[in-house]
Design brief:
There is one protein chain. The chain has a two-stranded antiparallel ribbon. The chain starts with a strand and ends in a 60-residue tail after the last strand. It has one domain. β1 and β2 form a beta hairpin. With 98 residues, it is mainly beta. It is built from 1 helix and 4 strands. It is globular and about 40 Å long.
Length: 98
């Protein structure tokens, strides 16, 4: 059975995805090794090489936080890819889809 999709931030996404983007905006920090690090919004990464428009992976707009588990999100500690850097061993830097 096909899942319902909706148009959100100019992208066709699963119907539940807009709520996940909105929930991500309330998660402003990650705890890494006992320290709190402010998350890096889309478009403010050190390597800001992304084309204009929403994030191609999670549909966040510039200045919004990515959905945890997004392949584009930058780790606020090491500045590598958050889902693969290993910094988040004691906190959730990856969502259920990663």
């Amino acid at each position: 059975m096909a899942k319902d999709k909706v148009l959100y931030n100019g992208m066709l996404v699963l119907a539940e995805w807009p709520a996940r983007v909105e929930a991500a905006q309330r998660e402003t920090e990650y705890q890494i090794d006992g320290f709190m690090y402010p998350r890096i919004p889309f478009g403010e990464e050190q390597r800001n090489e992304w084309p204009s428009g929403p994030c191609h992976d999670c549909a966040a707009l510039r200045t919004q936080y990515h959905v945890p588990g997004c392949e584009v999100e930058e780790c606020p500690r090491c500045h590598g890819q958050a889902i693969g850097c290993g910094c988040g061993d004691d906190g959730p830097m990856a969502g259920p889809e990663s």
